[in-house]
From TrEMBL:
Gene Ontology MF: a single term: oxidoreductase activity, acting on the CH-CH group of donors, NAD or NADP as acceptor
Annotated organism of origin: Capsulimonas corticalis
Protein's name according to its UniProt entry: Uncharacterized protein
NCBIfam families membership: GG-red-SF
Length: 398
């Protein structure tokens, strides 16, 4: 079977689904190819800033939001706790973090794109992508079908094939995360285990741990930044992160059976500076995790996937796809570059940063503003409590 489209989007995650919504809304004949059958499970903490709603027109939050976090409880080695409101003293604008299940959230985004006119083929994997003539792209799937399009958008995540097909993003900076979903009945465990409170632990080596509330369970995980997947330490790192997960459960008095814990590991492709994310004169574009859009300090990627995906679709719709690398850099590079500089210091000296920064009265509010995009990292990098120390410190290796 051979089919022709204006745009083929690979991946039905936030980046791909948001890109497809924009191209379909613009009247472009759009196909979404997703390797798994939707809805599908996706390992992810599932924290999304409320402000992402502005990037998701025609989407009803009640359909996918399981909890709304308004407070964060920070700890160092599960002690020295600091509980802070995201909106202290009714600060404006009001902010919060939505907690979502990616199976539900991603499916809602994809259904929105389909309602806008996109076609979906799930349960189908891409085998090859190659330029065809001067203005087309040829996509071959694993079942032997061939598709043609004027543009292809790679929204297929950290390990997707689209970047490799175009010889893009050959050097990647990764965070490695391990997570488990623990069934939970509200009212059981530590007094701060509440659906409006998220928990963050900073003594994890070069990373942090988290406990995020969902409707009927807790997402409990830990991650390390700057790790290499090919350094031979994968199993040792997994064991170390697993100890932090069970340590968090113990610290919060969450009942569990170690034999019942199912761990899910996944890479987070961190922003590592502006790099080419477009090929073949604008016929192929990368967005979201495929483009390395994960924030280097917080490790959050959903909102950046939504924004970059939508922007990729809009860029194609207005005929500027050959400028995609520049357009993406103009939108994100200054803030993400500053975030990377902060992250390198923060994860080298986490105890200092916890005492000097995290526990300060306004730090949680500032972090929420940064995550939401209301405040940019380059606007705060010189005003951090440890800015002078950071300026004197040599850049450490991840």
């Amino acid at each position: 079977m051979t089919r022709d489209y204006d745009v083929i989007v690979c991946g039905a995650g936030p980046a791909g689904a948001c890109a497809a919504y924009e191209t379909a809304t613009a009247g472009l004949n759009t196909l979404i190819i997703e390797k798994r059958t939707l809805p599908r499970y996706k390992t992810c903490g599932g924290g999304v800033p409320l402000t992402v709603e502005a990037d998701l027109p025609k989407l009803v939050p009640d359909a996918f939001v399981e909890a709304t976090v308004t407070h964060l409880r920070h700890t160092w080695n599960f002690a020295d706790p600091h509980l802070a409101a995201i909106n202290p003293d009714s600060a404006q604008p009001q902010m919060s973090l939505w907690m979502v299940q990616r199976s539900v959230f991603d499916n809602a985004l994809t259904e929105r794109a389909v309602a806008a006119g996109a076609e979906l083929r799930d349960g189908l994997s891409v085998r090859a992508v190659e330029p065809e003539g001067d203005h087309r792209v040829r996509v071959t799937t694993t079942d032997g079908d061939v598709y043609h399009a004027r543009h292809i958008i790679g929204g297929d995540g950290a390990n997707g094939p689209i970047a490799r097909c175009a010889d893009l993003r050959k050097t990647r900076l990764l965070a490695i995360a391990l997570e488990a979903e623990i069934p939970h009945e509200w009212g059981v465990g530590h007094e701060t285990l509440r659906p409006e409170i998220g928990h963050l632990e900073y003594a994890v080596r070069k990373g942090y741990g988290w406990v995020f509330p969902k409707a009927h369970h807790l997402s409990v995980g830990a991650g390390m930044f700057g790790a290499r997947s090919d350094d031979g330490r994968g199993e040792a790192r997994k064991d170390e992160l697993a100890r932090w997960v069970t340590g968090y459960l113990d610290a919060l008095d969450v009942p569990y059976d170690p034999k019942d814990i199912e761990y899910h590991g996944h890479p987070l492709p961190l922003w590592n500076g502006s790099e080419p994310v477009e090929a073949w004169n604008g016929r192929l574009l990368l967005a979201g995790d495929a483009a390395g859009m994960v924030n280097p300090l917080f490790g959050d990627g959903i909102s950046y996937a939504c924004r970059s995906g939508a922007l990729a679709g809009q860029t194609i719709a207005v005929g500027k796809s050959a400028r995609w690398t520049t357009i993406l850099a103009e939108e994100f590079a200054a803030s993400h570059d500053a975030s990377g500089k902060i992250a390198r210091f923060f994860y080298q000296f986490p105890s200092v940063c916890y005492k000097m920064g995290v526990k300060r009265p306004n730090s949680t509010r500032t972090a929420a503003r940064l995550i939401s995009g209301d405040l940019k990292f380059d606007a705060v990098i010189d005003r951090l409590p440890w800015s002078n120390l950071m300026a004197k410190s040599k850049k450490p290796a991840w």
